Amino acid sequence: MTRKAFIEKALKAGIGLPFFSSLLLESCNRYDLDLPDLHGAFEGKVIIVGAGAAGLAAGHLLQRYDVDFEIIEAAPVWGGRMKKTTDFADFPIDLGAEWIHTHPAILSDILSSPDINADIDIIVYNPQTTQTWNNGRLRDHNYISKLYSEWKFKHTTWFGFFEEYIVPGIEDRITLNTPVVEVDYSMGKVQLKTETGQVLEADKVLLTVPLKILQSEHIAFVPMLPKAKTDAIGQVSVGDGIKIFVEFQDRFYPDMLSFGPILKAFREEEKFVYNAAFGKESSRHILGLFAINEKATAYTQLGTDAAIIEQFLAELDEIFEGQASASYVQHVIQNWSAEPYIQGAYSYDFEDRQWRVVEAIQEPVADRLFFAGEALSIDHQATVHGACASAFDAVARMLKES
Amino acid sequence: MQARYFLLLMILAGTTLQAQEQPPELHIGYFAPFGVQIGGSVAYTDVLKQQIGAHQWWWRAQAGYFAQPNVSDAVFLHPEVEYRRCRPGQYFYASSSIGSSLAYTLSKQEGTLNLASGTIDYQKEGSLYIIPRISLGIGVAPRKRLGGYLRASYGQQLGGDNGKQAFFSAAAGLAISMHSKP
Q1: I want to staple A243 with a disulfide (CB 3.0 to 4.6 A). Which of A29, A106, A334, B103 is the partner?
Q2: Is A396 on the interface with B (CB under 8 A)?
Q3: Interface of B with A (CB under 8 A)
Q4: Residue A370: which CATH number?
Q5: Going along B115-145, which residue ranges are E strands?
C-alpha cells in the first residue's frame, strides 16, 4: 500500500492525526537497498532505454557486473526528472526530484561502492514554520515540525549526486538525442528503431522511460505488449507537474505553506510552497512551488511562462498582502508536462491495487523486455531511490533469468 | 488567626491521614508527544489534599524523555497539580491536571554522510523552552500494588528557536503504590 493510500484509509477510518503523522514519519525509516545477489555470467548485450534515475542506476549496476550495456536517451541531457540549475541562486536548485524521501544512507546503498570514500552534506529537512491558506485565511500550523521531516542535499542536488558519483563511470555508454520509436522483440534479439531510422540490437532491453511515454504510445512494440501489461500501464495515473522558483528581496513566507485543510494537503501532497533555501548556506530568499496533478494543470494550461509567473505572483500577493510582487526579483519555471520525453510529474494513483498493477508492468516480456522506474517501486513509488530500487530489481530479474 | 492555624492543622492532619490511606504512587509509562514521537516518563505522585467526598488533589513531579525519530531528542521536567474525581472506596478515577514542563531539545540540523559506510555524523543544536499544559485522563489507583493511567495533554511550547507551537501528547503507564496496603 502506498503512503498516500494508507493515510487515506487511516483518515477514512477516523483514526486521524496520530496515524496520519506516523505515516509522515514513515519516510524517516531506514530503507536498505541491497545489491542483487547474482550468480552466473550473462554475456549478451543490454540496452537501457531512458537515462533517468532508474536507467542510470541500472547502468551503474550492469557496469559493476561487467555486463555489456548501452543507455539510449531521447532528450539532449541525461537525468530524466532529475535536473538542476546552478545559475539562479547561490546554491544549486533541484528543478526536479529534490527531497531525499528516506534515510540518506540510501545514497550509499545506491552506489554500493565501498571504494567511494567521500562525504556528502545533507540537511535534516524539518520545516519549523508551516502555514495553511484555507478559505482565504492564513493559519499557523507550526506543530507540523514535530510530525514531518525528510532530508535534502545541502550543497548538491539529486542530479549533482548522479553527476558526481554515477555518471562518470558510465558516461561513455550513454547516447543522448536518440528517441526510440519501436521495440521489435519478435525475433531472437530485440531491435530498437530510433527516430532517425537507426536500428540497435540487444539481447535484452530494460525500459525505464516515464509511464506517460508508454501510455501515450510514443514507442511501438512488435508484437504488441500483452494486454494485461498495457491495461496495467493504463491504470497508473500520472498528472501534470510543475516547479517554480522565485527569488524575493525579503522573506515574507514560512518554511512551508500548504493549501486547503492541513490534513488534506499532506494526504494529497499535490501543492506546496516552501522556502527552497531552508538549511542551505544562502543569503538569498528563494521560494519554491511544487505542484502536481490538477494543481499543476492550473499553471501548465496557461501556456507561457509569463502567464504562469503572473498567476503565481497574484496568488502569493493575495496570501501575503501584495508582498510578492513588491519583493519579486527573478524566477525560473520547470514545466515537466511540457518536456516532450517526460510529459508529466510521476505516478500518483492506481486504478487497481498498486501491487497488482506494478507486478503486471514489471513482468518481463519474452524474457527480453524488462521494465523499471519510479512507478514500479511498490513501497517507494514516486521517489528517486524507488526508481533505483526498481532498477536493481529489474537487473536482478534480467540476469537471473538469463 | 487561631482559626487559620486550626484550619492549616486540620489540612495537614487530613493530608497525613490521606497519605496513610492513599500512599504515594510511582508512575512509569509511555509518553508520546504528537502521537508519533516516542518517549517515556517517570513520576512521583503524592496526595496534596485529603479526599473530600469524590474529590482528590494530588501533585506530581515528572521527568521524561521523548524523541522525534531522526530529528531530535528531548528531556523534560514536569511538575503538575492533579484533580481526581473518584467515588469513596472506588479505585477508578477521572482526572484533570495543570502544570508546566521545562524541556531541553537537542535537534539534528544537518549532517555529513559517508558514502562508503552510510553513516551520518550529525551537527546538533540545543534549545530550552517551557510547555504549560493541561491534561485529562483516567486511571485506576493501585488496589494493592499496581494501578494504571491514561492521559492526554494539550499545551503551548513557549520559547526556544521556533516561538509558540501547539503541543499535544498522550501518555499511558503503570501506577505503583509506594507502600503496600495492609
Answers
A1: A334
A2: no
A3: 33-37, 68-71, 107-120, 122, 161-168, 170
A4: 3.50.50.60
A5: 120-140
